[in-house]
Amino acid sequence: MMHLRNATEADLPAILEIHNDAVRNLDAIWSDKLESLDTRRDWMRERLDAGFPVIVVADEDNGVLGFGSYGPYRPKDGYRFTVDHSVYVAASAQGRGAGKILMAALIERARTGGFHVMVGGIDAGNTVSIKFHAAFGFKEAGRLPQVGAKFGRWLDLVQMALVLDDRERPPAN
Questions:
Q1: Residues 44-84: pLDDT tens digits?
Q2: What's the rounded Cα separation, in Å, for the pair 161 and 83?
Q3: Secondary structure in 3-state letters for the chain
Q4: For residue range 128-155, what is the model confidence (pLDDT) as tens digits?
Q5: What are the Cα distances from residue 146, in Å, to 3, 5, 28, 85, 149?
């Protein structure tokens, strides 16, 4: 039985392992550099201090199966109603529903947090992730050719976006 909860510092080793496994083996994170526990701790503190969620799906023994978060899409204040998200699931837990739990929770938190659009940047070759996002209502919003590099090849970026509400105008400042 899986359950969703807010991440704690005690979850950081598992979050780090999931993240670094993706760096080592997948095109999902466009970096060749493994992170340390300190860099993941800094990432989590920055997210939480800014009011953004860091959540995990855990098993019945409270072991972390996956994590998700969102944060600023871009730094300029004109983007303040848009968030960029990430969902990562341990290789051993993929295909069991953890990603769906994480994504649904992030979408709900973004909606209740007053955000208007959620964006995801996905390697164009990752058709599983593209289909996963489409199942949640994300639409392809653009493709950027050869903007990334990993494993000795150029990578294309697919931007997918989900409009979270039907507001015609942003709130007044």
A1: 999 999 999 999 999 999 999 999 999 999 999 999 999 99
A2: 10
A3: CCEEEECCHHHHHHHHHHHHHHHHHCCCCCCCCCCCHHHHHHHHHHHHHCCCCEEEEECCCCCEEEEEEEEECCCCHHHCCEEEEEEEECHHHCCCCHHHHHHHHHHHHHHHCCCCEEEEEEECCCHHHHHHHHHCCCEEEEEEEEEEEECCEEEEEEEEEEECCCCCCCCCC
A4: 999 999 999 999 999 999 999 999 999 9
A5: 38, 37, 14, 21, 7
Question: What domains lie within the chain, and their CATH numbers?
Answer: 3-163 (3.40.630.30)
Q: How far apart are CA 92 and CA 141, in angstroms?
A: 31
Q: Give the number of residues written for the chain.
A: 173
